[in-house]
Amino acid sequence: MDRVIIFDTTLRDGEQSPGISLDVPEKLEIADQLARLGVDVIEAGFPIASQGDFDAVEAIALGVQGATIAALSRTGFQDVDRAWEAVRHAARPRIHVFIATSPIHMAKKLRMTPDQVKAEAAAGVARAASYTKDVEFSPEDGSRSDVDFLCEVLRLAVDNGATTLNIPDTVGYGVPEQFGALIAHIIDTVHGDYVVSTHCHNDLGLAVANSLAGVAAGARQIECAMNGLGERAGNAALEEIVMAIKTRNDYFAGIDTGVKTEELARTSRLVSRLTGYPVQYNKAVVGRNAFAHESGIHQHGVLEDRETYEIIDAKTVGQEAAQIVLGKHSGRHAFSDTLAKMGIRIQGAALNSAFTRFKELADKKMEIAEADLEAIVAEELGSSVVNRFALLSIDLHGGSSSRPTATLVLTDNGEKREVTADGNGMVDAACKAIAETAGFHGRLVDYSVASITSGLDAQANVVVQLEEDGRRASGRGVSTDVVEASAKAYLAAVNRLLRRREAADRDAEVGP
Amino acid sequence: MDRVIIFDTTLRDGEQSPGISLDVPEKLEIADQLARLGVDVIEAGFPIASQGDFDAVEAIALGVQGATIAALSRTGFQDVDRAWEAVRHAARPRIHVFIATSPIHMAKKLRMTPDQVKAEAAAGVARAASYTKDVEFSPEDGSRSDVDFLCEVLRLAVDNGATTLNIPDTVGYGVPEQFGALIAHIIDTVHGDYVVSTHCHNDLGLAVANSLAGVAAGARQIECAMNGLGERAGNAALEEIVMAIKTRNDYFAGIDTGVKTEELARTSRLVSRLTGYPVQYNKAVVGRNAFAHESGIHQHGVLEDRETYEIIDAKTVGQEAAQIVLGKHSGRHAFSDTLAKMGIRIQGAALNSAFTRFKELADKKMEIAEADLEAIVAEELGSSVVNRFALLSIDLHGGSSSRPTATLVLTDNGEKREVTADGNGMVDAACKAIAETAGFHGRLVDYSVASITSGLDAQANVVVQLEEDGRRASGRGVSTDVVEASAKAYLAAVNRLLRRREAADRDAEVGP
User: Which of A175, A208, A229 sits opposite B206 (nearest CB)?
Assistant: First the structure.
């Protein structure tokens, strides 16, 4: 079998999506799941970009087993050194060096001549190769670059120690025929011992097709992201790439990935929940309706033979997981047993409070889905951090005939406080009460709500992003009541902003 | 210029998505907008499938100007006759006849021999051609059919009067290279005067690429749907097809569509709102972040020159509409003027109540976006129907320390009624109060909530689907309060179910 390396960039390019700001524990949780999914390379971040990015890459390099951990870097030595510092503890570290090679990027963004770009590429790659044998080089905006110049730069990268050459279609401009031809031309022209990789964006809906055209032409690494996250319209969707290669193994003869497809649905749900980016119902492979048949003719066909209208078995991608038999009478043992089978490690206080949450939910909701358990546990896993504020209870009254009012009981460093505020709606009132208590004077950047399963008794997953004094933080909240979920999310974001404010104050005291 | 015909199937294949059930006024609204968008063909439904489908096709054929109106039909004469009956009033009617040609579909679903399928195809097309000169034929599951047999059937269709031959990749199995080759082979092999069309599904994320490979091979019609709606993972997304052909006019040299791209964003929002299917933030072309730049490097590049990271100007697809200057002090004239500029026709009582809603919203929300106005007007446009129940006010109290309770004041055929119910959450309580009042004993099939713009003061758009005695109906509700929006949606669905129940009772009285 000829292995295509799956290079996941959910935590780097995906995390650059507007409104997404994952903190270190969240990134670790996603990285753990990506390793369980069986991706070959996890691009964990861009260490020079911020202290948060550096910390996340370092934590993943130290804590996540089984995958190569990559760190992104521009060509400057300071960038490369910082990338290496963050990633060096990984069992298999990789430095990913990039510089733009298209005329418009060199002239307008870099303000460099082509010769300067060549010198930068050579020097940056050589610096990275002085640290590790696993060096990837990307000529940014490669698909809009002069092809001869592109090959010159790539040759320099190989000569200076690059072992992977990644060809980005940065602006999503490629069409499969041309992009495949570009990959073939590079393999023909640039000699040496390296793997060719693709990095395709989806601005015209062609990211997956372009990546696969690359594979057909000889590429053996694909850069992609769960749920197709990434700048603008995102990157090639990992789940589509993997399932296309698997389902059409007659066409991609002898080619395989190492991905455990049964983990795709869960990985997709985790990423969606933590980023607050909903997955379209009709999203290929991981959408909730990707395997649903509605019309009578289709249903009739599927009853006769599933393959009349199905080329992927939903079980293959983990979409039809074994029914969960947990109910309101299940005990702690059955609960932690089920979680273990789902591959979730949770213990101690987090297990206890997750179990309490589960019992509460079982009282309210008839059927408890795997997705419900994941959501509960995800919230409790983050609970080891010390938060200044916690929500004890929330009560509301009012509506269209009297202005909505929310009364919240919070603990402020353990001390009980009750606060009441009104607003334009229930959610608005609850969040205003929190802002008042916490002295939050920033602004709301993003608010999104999605239901975890369907039904009136479904849990709502709310993600809120706040900004104060140039710092941003997001928070999540899960509840069968959308107002309570919103209040929890808002409070989580406020707690995070407070931690960041304190950390910044400490740094300011210590620093120069 | 070589014109590619854009055949929109949002109202047929798109409406077959699970959980979507549009009624006649909603389908008319979408069809009107599709005509404004400039699609060439609107597939309005499958008349034999249900009375509702028939009525919608007939209403669109009678009321929508500018596009060819197509009706779907199997090969049986009863099907064809019914399709013609529904569509015949259109200025340019088309009958779209289909029968499956793949071995698995013929053996397992149709239980027909290949010869029987050939006879059926010929007879069905001939019947359609006896009514109209515009006959389309589709060999269902074409991409998994024996290619020689496929061409025989297609030849029979042409000989019997088909003027369009549409090649469906029904299960989304195709890859661009092979699908393009199939289209080229058909053009080479089947002689006659016809247009070749593609109909690609997105199960492997390749629907757009396969459609475009078809165009490169000579196809001159593409079947597609807004937001990529359709069975399972959906059809090729209309917006991506159109923008790929436009943006890469160097590659698709001399090829053009008639679509007014500035209407894409609004069409996408309308379809999303009426179907309750959210659009992914990172969806190409119409996602809310499709043109957002997050990383510092990208932002820097775009400030220097937009084209460093942008191949589509957001204005081209209507994503950066002119700012709306309406505020709380705007009068009725400015309001209707703005709507007229947006291409929305509204008058009389609907205009009055839309204006009242707008003033209420302006009191609560700082910035009023075009999407807000669309949502308000969409609700009021449907208000000409007589509803048994109407919501006057909603008040809530309780929360986590006391069980949530909702008190609603409703009118029941004009008579005021107050009702109180409790539930697991605010939404649950409000909906239970409605169910009690209306004597609704069915079940909730689907519940979805999306925010129309971002922000705590954003309006929530809730879509609810209910089922009672085998009948389904959906309802929408919009409000800055998610609980109120949910109650409105639930009530709208209940009203519709009641209308359908009454209509069924009437039919039962009249019928045999």
Answer: A208
Q: What is the ipTM of this complex?
A: 0.86
455-494 in B: which are within 8 Å (CB) of A?
455-458, 460, 479-484
Yes or no: say if A13 and A235 are a contact pair by the CB < 8 Å rule. yes
Cα(B4)–Cα(B74) distance, integer angstroms: 26
Q: What is the identity of the amino acid at B495?
A: N
The CA distance from B88 to B82, in Å, is 10
- Mutate one of B110, B232, B464 to test the A interface: name it (highest A CB count within 10 A): B232
Mutate which: A232, A255, A357, vs B, most B CBs within 10 A: A232
Angle B252-B257-B259 from CA coordinates, rounded to 5°: 140
Cα(A161)–Cα(B17) distance, integer angstroms: 51
Separation CA A23–CA A277 (nearest Å): 16
Other C-beta atoms lying within 10 Å of the C-beta of residue A90? 25
* Lowest-pLDDT range of A32-41, A463-472, B144-153: A463-472
Q: Given CA atoms B358, B361, B366, B370 in this order, what sign does their dihedral have?
A: negative
Q: For residue range B130-155, list pLDDT tens digits in order.
A: 999 999 999 999 999 999 999 999 99
Structure tokens at A297: 């003719």
| CB contacts, 8 Å: B233 with chain A | 282-285, 287, 289-290
In the sheet with B471-479, reading across from the earlier edge strand, the strands are B443-451, B460-468, B471-479
Please name the amino acid found at residue A243: M
End-to-end alpha-carbon separation of chain B, Å?
56
Mean pLDDT of B193-221: 98
| Kind plus residue range of the DSSP H or E element containing B242 | helix B238-247
Å from A510 to nearest chain B CA?
A: 27
B278: nearest Cα among A113, A142, A287: A287
Rounded to a whole number of angstroms, the distance from the CA of B195 to the nearest CA of chain A is: 24
Cβ B204–A243 below 8 Å, yes or no? yes
Q: What is the reported pTM?
A: 0.88
In the sheet that A415-422 helps form, which strands lie side by side, from edge to edge? Answer: A415-422, A405-412, A389-399, B389-399, B405-412, B415-422
**Chain B residue whose CA is closest to A230:** B282
* φ, ψ dihedrals at A488, nearest 5°: -60, -45
Contact A301 B108 (CB under 8 A): yes
What percent of the residues of chain A are helix, what percent strand, and what percent coil, each to the nearest 5?
A: 45, 20, 35
- Return all residues near B107 (Cβ < 8 A) that are at least 6 apart: none
